[in-house]
Amino acid sequence: MPHSRRVIAAVSALLVVAATAPFSARTQDWKTIETEALQTLQRYVRINTAVPPGDVSKAADLLQSILEREGIPVTRYESGPGRSIIVARLKGTGPAKPLMLLHHMDVVPADASRWARDPFSAEIADGKLWGRGSFDMKGPGVAHLYAFIALKRRNVPLKRDVILMAVPDEEVGGGLGAAWMREHHLKDIEPEYILDEGGFGSRDLFTKDKLVFGISVAEKKILWLKLIAEGVAGHGSQPHDRNPNDRLTRALARLVSEPVTPTKFDVLEAFRSRVGELAANKFNNAIQNSTISITSLRSGVGEPPKVNVIPSIAEATIDCRVLPGTSREAWLKEIARRLGDPEIKVEVVYEGPDPVVTTRDSEFYRALEAAVRARHPDAIVAPMIVPYGTDSNGFRPLGVKSYGFTPMIVPAASVASMHGDAEFIPVDALGPAIQILFDAIVTTTTR
Ligand SMILES: [Zn+2]
After folding, report:
1. Which DSSP letter does residue 405 get?
2. Rounded distance, CA 321 to CA 284, Å?
3. Sheet of 124-125, strands arranged across
4. What is the C-alpha to C-alpha distance for residues 295 and 402, in angstroms, rounded to an integer?
5. What separation in Å is there between the alpha carbon of 335 and the centre of ligand 1?
6. Ligand 1: distance of its center to the CA of 444 in Å?
7. 343 CA distance to ligand 1 centroid (A)?
8. pLDDT score of 4
9. Beta strand residue intervals within 168-260, DSSP E
10. What average pLDDT does the segment 197-214 reach?
11. Per-residue pLDDT for 104 more than 90?
Protein backbone atom coordinates (compact mmCIF):
# COMPACT_ATOMS: atom_id res chain seq x y z
CA MET A 1 0.00 0.00 0.00
CA PRO A 2 1.48 3.41 -0.96
CA HIS A 3 2.45 5.57 1.92
CA SER A 4 -0.32 8.14 1.47
CA ARG A 5 -3.04 5.47 1.26
CA ARG A 6 -1.66 3.83 4.35
CA VAL A 7 -1.92 7.14 6.19
CA ILE A 8 -5.50 7.60 4.97
CA ALA A 9 -6.38 4.05 6.03
CA ALA A 10 -4.87 4.62 9.44
CA VAL A 11 -6.64 7.94 9.82
CA SER A 12 -9.98 6.49 8.75
CA ALA A 13 -9.51 3.56 11.12
CA LEU A 14 -8.98 6.09 13.88
CA LEU A 15 -12.08 7.95 12.77
CA VAL A 16 -14.13 4.75 12.90
CA VAL A 17 -12.91 4.12 16.41
CA ALA A 18 -13.65 7.73 17.27
CA ALA A 19 -17.15 7.52 15.81
CA THR A 20 -18.15 4.34 17.57
CA ALA A 21 -16.64 5.14 20.92
CA PRO A 22 -15.86 8.83 20.88
CA PHE A 23 -14.88 9.27 24.50
CA SER A 24 -14.16 5.79 25.64
CA ALA A 25 -10.88 5.84 27.35
CA ARG A 26 -7.61 4.27 26.75
CA THR A 27 -7.07 1.53 29.30
CA GLN A 28 -4.26 3.49 30.91
CA ASP A 29 -6.56 6.43 31.67
CA TRP A 30 -9.04 4.25 33.52
CA LYS A 31 -6.27 2.66 35.55
CA THR A 32 -5.18 6.12 36.70
CA ILE A 33 -8.74 7.11 37.51
CA GLU A 34 -9.36 3.88 39.39
CA THR A 35 -6.25 4.37 41.52
CA GLU A 36 -7.15 7.97 42.26
CA ALA A 37 -10.73 6.98 43.10
CA LEU A 38 -9.63 4.34 45.56
CA GLN A 39 -7.25 6.73 47.30
CA THR A 40 -9.94 9.38 47.46
CA LEU A 41 -12.42 6.89 48.91
CA GLN A 42 -9.95 6.04 51.66
CA ARG A 43 -9.48 9.71 52.50
CA TYR A 44 -13.25 10.24 52.38
CA VAL A 45 -14.07 7.32 54.70
CA ARG A 46 -11.39 8.53 57.15
CA ILE A 47 -13.32 11.76 57.66
CA ASN A 48 -15.86 10.85 60.31
CA THR A 49 -19.17 12.34 59.14
CA ALA A 50 -21.42 10.31 61.44
CA VAL A 51 -24.73 11.95 62.25
CA PRO A 52 -25.17 12.86 65.02
CA PRO A 53 -23.33 15.21 65.10
CA GLY A 54 -23.25 15.11 61.28
CA ASP A 55 -20.53 17.66 60.57
CA VAL A 56 -19.59 17.17 56.91
CA SER A 57 -17.54 20.34 56.37
CA LYS A 58 -14.21 18.48 56.10
CA ALA A 59 -15.72 16.00 53.64
CA ALA A 60 -17.05 18.92 51.60
CA ASP A 61 -13.56 20.52 51.72
CA LEU A 62 -12.07 17.32 50.31
CA LEU A 63 -14.56 17.08 47.44
CA GLN A 64 -14.31 20.79 46.71
CA SER A 65 -10.50 20.74 46.56
CA ILE A 66 -10.49 17.74 44.20
CA LEU A 67 -13.08 19.33 41.91
CA GLU A 68 -11.36 22.72 41.86
CA ARG A 69 -8.02 21.12 41.07
CA GLU A 70 -9.72 19.73 37.95
CA GLY A 71 -10.87 23.24 37.05
CA ILE A 72 -14.51 22.51 37.85
CA PRO A 73 -16.41 25.37 39.54
CA VAL A 74 -18.06 24.54 42.86
CA THR A 75 -20.89 26.35 44.61
CA ARG A 76 -21.01 25.73 48.32
CA TYR A 77 -24.07 26.23 50.49
CA GLU A 78 -24.26 26.08 54.27
CA SER A 79 -27.67 24.95 55.52
CA GLY A 80 -26.53 24.96 59.17
CA PRO A 81 -23.42 24.58 61.35
CA GLY A 82 -21.26 21.87 59.75
CA ARG A 83 -23.94 21.29 57.11
CA SER A 84 -22.16 22.00 53.84
CA ILE A 85 -23.63 21.26 50.43
CA ILE A 86 -21.49 21.00 47.30
CA VAL A 87 -22.85 21.66 43.82
CA ALA A 88 -20.40 21.30 40.93
CA ARG A 89 -21.44 21.77 37.33
CA LEU A 90 -20.16 20.90 33.89
CA LYS A 91 -21.89 23.14 31.38
CA GLY A 92 -23.75 21.77 28.40
CA THR A 93 -24.83 23.65 25.30
CA GLY A 94 -28.43 22.53 24.75
CA PRO A 95 -31.76 23.43 26.36
CA ALA A 96 -32.36 20.08 28.12
CA LYS A 97 -32.43 20.16 31.90
CA PRO A 98 -29.43 18.79 33.83
CA LEU A 99 -28.55 15.27 34.81
CA MET A 100 -27.58 15.31 38.48
CA LEU A 101 -25.40 12.87 40.40
CA LEU A 102 -26.54 13.01 44.01
CA HIS A 103 -24.88 11.49 47.04
CA HIS A 104 -24.85 12.05 50.78
CA MET A 105 -21.67 12.75 52.73
CA ASP A 106 -23.05 11.82 56.16
CA VAL A 107 -22.99 8.28 57.53
CA VAL A 108 -24.69 6.51 60.41
CA PRO A 109 -22.64 6.20 63.62
CA ALA A 110 -20.35 3.23 64.16
CA ASP A 111 -19.85 1.51 67.50
CA ALA A 112 -16.09 0.91 67.27
CA SER A 113 -16.21 -1.70 70.04
CA ARG A 114 -18.29 -3.95 67.75
CA TRP A 115 -15.96 -3.61 64.76
CA ALA A 116 -12.99 -5.88 64.04
CA ARG A 117 -11.25 -2.82 62.51
CA ASP A 118 -11.36 0.89 63.16
CA PRO A 119 -14.54 1.90 61.28
CA PHE A 120 -12.87 5.10 60.09
CA SER A 121 -9.48 3.70 59.04
CA ALA A 122 -10.59 2.68 55.51
CA GLU A 123 -8.29 -0.30 55.73
CA ILE A 124 -7.91 -2.47 52.64
CA ALA A 125 -7.73 -6.19 53.42
CA ASP A 126 -8.88 -9.34 51.60
CA GLY A 127 -9.74 -7.30 48.51
CA LYS A 128 -12.21 -5.22 50.48
CA LEU A 129 -12.23 -1.63 51.61
CA TRP A 130 -13.63 -1.63 55.14
CA GLY A 131 -15.25 1.28 56.86
CA ARG A 132 -18.38 3.13 57.77
CA GLY A 133 -19.76 4.72 54.64
CA SER A 134 -17.74 2.61 52.19
CA PHE A 135 -21.02 1.27 50.78
CA ASP A 136 -23.51 3.82 52.14
CA MET A 137 -22.60 5.93 50.35
CA LYS A 138 -19.09 7.35 50.03
CA GLY A 139 -18.13 4.54 47.63
CA PRO A 140 -20.99 5.37 45.23
CA GLY A 141 -20.24 9.08 45.76
CA VAL A 142 -16.64 8.57 44.68
CA ALA A 143 -17.89 6.65 41.61
CA HIS A 144 -19.99 9.75 40.77
CA LEU A 145 -17.02 12.03 41.38
CA TYR A 146 -14.64 10.21 39.04
CA ALA A 147 -17.20 9.63 36.27
CA PHE A 148 -17.79 13.40 36.50
CA ILE A 149 -14.06 14.19 36.48
CA ALA A 150 -13.60 11.89 33.46
CA LEU A 151 -16.19 13.95 31.54
CA LYS A 152 -14.13 17.04 32.24
CA ARG A 153 -10.72 15.56 31.52
CA ARG A 154 -11.92 14.26 28.15
CA ASN A 155 -13.74 17.46 27.26
CA VAL A 156 -16.91 15.54 26.47
CA PRO A 157 -19.09 17.96 24.46
CA LEU A 158 -22.16 18.01 26.67
CA LYS A 159 -25.57 19.01 25.34
CA ARG A 160 -26.97 19.37 28.83
CA ASP A 161 -25.42 20.30 32.18
CA VAL A 162 -24.15 17.56 34.42
CA ILE A 163 -24.28 18.40 38.12
CA LEU A 164 -22.59 16.68 41.00
CA MET A 165 -24.29 17.38 44.31
CA ALA A 166 -23.10 16.16 47.72
CA VAL A 167 -25.34 16.73 50.73
CA PRO A 168 -25.40 16.20 54.52
CA ASP A 169 -28.17 14.83 56.73
CA GLU A 170 -29.56 12.04 54.52
CA GLU A 171 -29.40 9.57 57.39
CA VAL A 172 -31.67 11.82 59.46
CA GLY A 173 -34.24 12.61 56.80
CA GLY A 174 -32.46 15.20 54.62
CA GLY A 175 -33.93 18.27 56.35
CA LEU A 176 -30.65 20.22 56.07
CA GLY A 177 -29.52 18.41 52.93
CA ALA A 178 -31.49 17.42 49.84
CA ALA A 179 -34.82 18.68 51.23
CA TRP A 180 -33.21 22.02 52.13
CA MET A 181 -31.90 22.39 48.57
CA ARG A 182 -35.37 21.62 47.18
CA GLU A 183 -36.91 24.20 49.44
CA HIS A 184 -34.35 26.99 49.08
CA HIS A 185 -32.32 26.52 45.89
CA LEU A 186 -34.29 24.31 43.53
CA LYS A 187 -33.76 26.86 40.75
CA ASP A 188 -29.98 26.34 41.02
CA ILE A 189 -30.25 22.66 40.11
CA GLU A 190 -33.60 21.82 38.40
CA PRO A 191 -32.59 18.40 37.12
CA GLU A 192 -34.46 16.25 34.64
CA TYR A 193 -32.62 13.17 35.91
CA ILE A 194 -31.11 12.22 39.24
CA LEU A 195 -28.81 9.32 39.90
CA ASP A 196 -28.66 8.39 43.58
CA GLU A 197 -28.06 5.32 45.75
CA GLY A 198 -30.55 2.45 45.74
CA GLY A 199 -29.93 -0.50 43.44
CA PHE A 200 -26.66 -2.24 42.47
CA GLY A 201 -25.40 -5.46 40.95
CA SER A 202 -24.93 -8.77 42.72
CA ARG A 203 -24.24 -12.38 41.85
CA ASP A 204 -25.74 -13.88 44.99
CA LEU A 205 -28.17 -11.46 46.62
CA PHE A 206 -31.17 -11.47 44.28
CA THR A 207 -30.80 -15.04 43.14
CA LYS A 208 -28.02 -17.60 43.22
CA ASP A 209 -25.52 -17.74 40.36
CA LYS A 210 -26.99 -15.01 38.18
CA LEU A 211 -25.55 -11.55 37.77
CA VAL A 212 -28.45 -9.18 38.38
CA PHE A 213 -28.40 -5.38 38.39
CA GLY A 214 -31.43 -3.73 39.95
CA ILE A 215 -32.14 -0.10 39.07
CA SER A 216 -34.39 1.47 41.67
CA VAL A 217 -37.35 3.39 40.25
CA ALA A 218 -39.42 3.71 43.43
CA GLU A 219 -39.45 3.42 47.20
CA LYS A 220 -41.94 2.00 49.63
CA LYS A 221 -44.22 4.17 51.70
CA ILE A 222 -43.14 4.55 55.30
CA LEU A 223 -45.84 4.30 57.98
CA TRP A 224 -44.61 4.39 61.56
CA LEU A 225 -47.33 3.48 64.03
CA LYS A 226 -47.70 3.53 67.78
CA LEU A 227 -50.01 0.96 69.36
CA ILE A 228 -51.43 1.77 72.77
CA ALA A 229 -53.21 -0.65 75.09
CA GLU A 230 -54.86 0.77 78.18
CA GLY A 231 -55.87 -1.27 81.20
CA VAL A 232 -56.07 -1.18 84.96
CA ALA A 233 -53.05 -1.03 87.28
CA GLY A 234 -52.78 -3.44 90.14
CA HIS A 235 -50.66 -5.72 92.30
CA GLY A 236 -48.63 -8.31 90.43
CA SER A 237 -49.71 -10.93 92.97
CA GLN A 238 -53.31 -10.80 91.72
CA PRO A 239 -53.58 -11.12 87.92
CA HIS A 240 -56.72 -9.77 86.31
CA ASP A 241 -58.10 -9.52 82.79
CA ARG A 242 -57.42 -5.78 82.29
CA ASN A 243 -53.62 -6.08 82.19
CA PRO A 244 -52.53 -3.93 79.16
CA ASN A 245 -49.37 -6.02 78.70
CA ASP A 246 -51.43 -9.17 78.12
CA ARG A 247 -53.66 -7.35 75.72
CA LEU A 248 -50.82 -5.82 73.74
CA THR A 249 -48.64 -8.93 73.52
CA ARG A 250 -51.55 -11.06 72.29
CA ALA A 251 -52.38 -8.47 69.64
CA LEU A 252 -48.73 -8.21 68.55
CA ALA A 253 -48.53 -11.98 68.22
CA ARG A 254 -51.58 -11.88 65.92
CA LEU A 255 -50.07 -8.95 64.02
CA VAL A 256 -46.97 -10.81 62.88
CA SER A 257 -48.16 -14.41 62.82
CA GLU A 258 -49.74 -14.22 59.37
CA PRO A 259 -47.63 -13.52 56.28
CA VAL A 260 -48.48 -10.31 54.43
CA THR A 261 -50.58 -10.93 51.33
CA PRO A 262 -48.44 -10.18 48.26
CA THR A 263 -49.40 -7.01 46.40
CA LYS A 264 -49.50 -6.82 42.61
CA PHE A 265 -47.09 -4.15 41.48
CA ASP A 266 -45.79 -3.82 37.95
CA VAL A 267 -42.16 -2.98 38.83
CA LEU A 268 -42.04 -6.13 40.93
CA GLU A 269 -43.61 -8.19 38.17
CA ALA A 270 -41.02 -6.84 35.71
CA PHE A 271 -38.20 -7.67 38.12
CA ARG A 272 -39.41 -11.22 38.75
CA SER A 273 -40.14 -11.90 35.10
CA ARG A 274 -36.49 -11.16 34.28
CA VAL A 275 -34.78 -12.60 37.34
CA GLY A 276 -37.01 -15.57 38.13
CA GLU A 277 -37.59 -16.83 41.65
CA LEU A 278 -35.71 -14.65 44.14
CA ALA A 279 -33.45 -16.13 46.82
CA ALA A 280 -34.95 -16.29 50.30
CA ASN A 281 -33.37 -13.50 52.35
CA LYS A 282 -34.49 -10.44 54.26
CA PHE A 283 -33.62 -8.01 51.46
CA ASN A 284 -35.64 -9.89 48.85
CA ASN A 285 -38.53 -10.27 51.27
CA ALA A 286 -38.52 -6.52 51.79
CA ILE A 287 -38.47 -5.68 48.06
CA GLN A 288 -41.38 -8.05 47.34
CA ASN A 289 -43.72 -7.45 50.25
CA SER A 290 -45.12 -4.78 52.47
CA THR A 291 -43.46 -5.39 55.83
CA ILE A 292 -44.06 -4.93 59.55
CA SER A 293 -41.29 -4.74 62.14
CA ILE A 294 -42.07 -4.43 65.84
CA THR A 295 -39.36 -1.98 66.88
CA SER A 296 -40.10 -1.08 70.49
CA LEU A 297 -42.13 -2.15 73.52
CA ARG A 298 -42.67 0.21 76.41
CA SER A 299 -44.45 -0.58 79.61
CA GLY A 300 -44.01 -0.91 83.39
CA VAL A 301 -44.05 1.44 86.34
CA GLY A 302 -40.81 3.02 87.56
CA GLU A 303 -37.30 2.89 86.17
CA PRO A 304 -36.28 0.11 86.16
CA PRO A 305 -39.90 -1.10 85.98
CA LYS A 306 -41.24 -2.70 89.15
CA VAL A 307 -41.73 -6.43 88.75
CA ASN A 308 -44.68 -6.56 91.13
CA VAL A 309 -46.76 -3.77 89.59
CA ILE A 310 -49.24 -4.25 86.73
CA PRO A 311 -49.16 -0.99 84.76
CA SER A 312 -52.15 0.78 83.30
CA ILE A 313 -50.65 1.34 79.86
CA ALA A 314 -48.48 -0.54 77.38
CA GLU A 315 -47.15 0.74 74.07
CA ALA A 316 -45.39 -0.62 71.03
CA THR A 317 -44.06 1.00 67.88
CA ILE A 318 -44.14 -0.71 64.52
CA ASP A 319 -42.28 0.26 61.37
CA CYS A 320 -44.39 -0.51 58.29
CA ARG A 321 -43.00 -0.23 54.76
CA VAL A 322 -45.82 -0.45 52.27
CA LEU A 323 -45.53 -1.31 48.59
CA PRO A 324 -47.14 0.96 46.00
CA GLY A 325 -50.64 -0.26 45.22
CA THR A 326 -51.78 -0.36 48.85
CA SER A 327 -53.31 2.86 50.16
CA ARG A 328 -52.72 4.22 53.66
CA GLU A 329 -56.37 3.50 54.56
CA ALA A 330 -56.22 -0.07 53.25
CA TRP A 331 -53.01 -0.68 55.19
CA LEU A 332 -54.37 0.77 58.47
CA LYS A 333 -57.47 -1.39 58.05
CA GLU A 334 -55.26 -4.43 57.56
CA ILE A 335 -53.26 -3.58 60.70
CA ALA A 336 -56.49 -3.22 62.72
CA ARG A 337 -57.77 -6.54 61.36
CA ARG A 338 -54.56 -8.31 62.32
CA LEU A 339 -54.46 -6.79 65.80
CA GLY A 340 -58.01 -8.08 66.27
CA ASP A 341 -58.67 -5.80 69.23
CA PRO A 342 -60.59 -2.57 68.59
CA GLU A 343 -59.57 -1.27 72.03
CA ILE A 344 -55.94 -0.97 71.01
CA LYS A 345 -55.38 2.56 69.76
CA VAL A 346 -53.34 2.97 66.58
CA GLU A 347 -51.59 6.33 66.09
CA VAL A 348 -49.67 7.33 62.99
CA VAL A 349 -46.43 8.86 64.30
CA TYR A 350 -44.81 9.41 60.91
CA GLU A 351 -46.01 8.97 57.39
CA GLY A 352 -43.81 9.19 54.29
CA PRO A 353 -45.12 10.48 51.00
CA ASP A 354 -47.10 8.21 48.69
CA PRO A 355 -44.70 6.44 46.34
CA VAL A 356 -44.12 7.94 42.92
CA VAL A 357 -42.69 5.51 40.38
CA THR A 358 -40.14 6.86 37.88
CA THR A 359 -40.68 5.69 34.31
CA ARG A 360 -38.28 3.19 32.76
CA ASP A 361 -39.16 4.65 29.40
CA SER A 362 -36.41 7.27 29.44
CA GLU A 363 -33.13 7.93 27.72
CA PHE A 364 -31.13 7.72 30.93
CA TYR A 365 -32.68 4.42 32.07
CA ARG A 366 -31.97 2.87 28.68
CA ALA A 367 -28.43 4.27 28.75
CA LEU A 368 -27.76 2.78 32.20
CA GLU A 369 -29.08 -0.58 31.07
CA ALA A 370 -27.05 -0.51 27.85
CA ALA A 371 -23.85 0.54 29.63
CA VAL A 372 -24.19 -2.34 32.11
CA ARG A 373 -24.88 -4.82 29.31
CA ALA A 374 -21.94 -3.60 27.23
CA ARG A 375 -19.63 -4.41 30.09
CA HIS A 376 -21.40 -7.49 31.47
CA PRO A 377 -23.13 -9.23 28.54
CA ASP A 378 -24.39 -11.98 30.87
CA ALA A 379 -26.13 -9.54 33.21
CA ILE A 380 -29.85 -9.25 33.85
CA VAL A 381 -30.82 -5.60 34.29
CA ALA A 382 -34.22 -5.00 35.87
CA PRO A 383 -36.18 -2.19 37.52
CA MET A 384 -36.72 -2.58 41.24
CA ILE A 385 -38.12 -0.95 44.32
CA VAL A 386 -35.82 -0.46 47.30
CA PRO A 387 -36.88 -1.19 50.88
CA TYR A 388 -35.14 1.87 52.37
CA GLY A 389 -35.52 5.59 51.81
CA THR A 390 -33.14 7.83 49.86
CA ASP A 391 -32.78 11.54 49.11
CA SER A 392 -33.83 11.33 45.47
CA ASN A 393 -37.32 10.10 46.35
CA GLY A 394 -38.34 13.62 47.40
CA PHE A 395 -37.59 14.82 43.86
CA ARG A 396 -39.97 12.32 42.23
CA PRO A 397 -43.18 14.23 43.09
CA LEU A 398 -41.61 17.24 41.30
CA GLY A 399 -41.44 15.21 38.10
CA VAL A 400 -37.71 14.47 38.30
CA LYS A 401 -36.79 11.07 36.90
CA SER A 402 -34.83 9.63 39.81
CA TYR A 403 -32.91 6.39 39.57
CA GLY A 404 -31.23 4.72 42.51
CA PHE A 405 -28.33 2.80 41.09
CA THR A 406 -24.63 2.19 41.57
CA PRO A 407 -23.30 -0.23 38.95
CA MET A 408 -20.97 -1.98 41.41
CA ILE A 409 -21.11 -5.74 41.76
CA VAL A 410 -21.36 -6.47 45.47
CA PRO A 411 -21.88 -9.67 47.42
CA ALA A 412 -24.97 -10.15 49.59
CA ALA A 413 -22.68 -9.73 52.62
CA SER A 414 -21.78 -6.22 51.51
CA VAL A 415 -25.45 -5.25 51.21
CA ALA A 416 -26.15 -6.72 54.63
CA SER A 417 -23.23 -4.70 56.04
CA MET A 418 -24.91 -1.34 55.44
CA HIS A 419 -25.40 0.36 58.83
CA GLY A 420 -23.80 -2.76 60.39
CA ASP A 421 -20.48 -3.32 62.12
CA ALA A 422 -18.48 -4.70 59.18
CA GLU A 423 -19.33 -2.39 56.29
CA PHE A 424 -17.24 -2.85 53.15
CA ILE A 425 -17.13 -2.75 49.40
CA PRO A 426 -15.03 -5.02 47.20
CA VAL A 427 -12.08 -2.95 45.95
CA ASP A 428 -12.55 -4.20 42.39
CA ALA A 429 -16.18 -3.01 42.29
CA LEU A 430 -15.28 0.66 42.06
CA GLY A 431 -13.44 0.95 38.72
CA PRO A 432 -16.06 -0.80 36.55
CA ALA A 433 -18.81 1.23 38.24
CA ILE A 434 -17.07 4.48 37.26
CA GLN A 435 -16.75 3.36 33.63
CA ILE A 436 -20.38 2.22 33.38
CA LEU A 437 -21.59 5.50 34.85
CA PHE A 438 -19.36 7.46 32.51
CA ASP A 439 -20.71 5.60 29.46
CA ALA A 440 -24.34 6.04 30.53
CA ILE A 441 -23.86 9.75 31.24
CA VAL A 442 -22.11 10.31 27.90
CA THR A 443 -24.96 8.59 26.02
CA THR A 444 -27.56 10.67 27.82
CA THR A 445 -25.83 14.04 27.62
CA THR A 446 -24.18 14.17 24.20
CA ARG A 447 -27.22 13.85 21.97
ZN1 LIG B 1 -27.37 6.05 52.00
Report:
1. E
2. 14
3. 124-125, 128-130, 424-426
4. 30
5. 29
6. 25
7. 39
8. 44
9. 193-202, 212-219, 221-230, 234-235
10. 96
11. yes
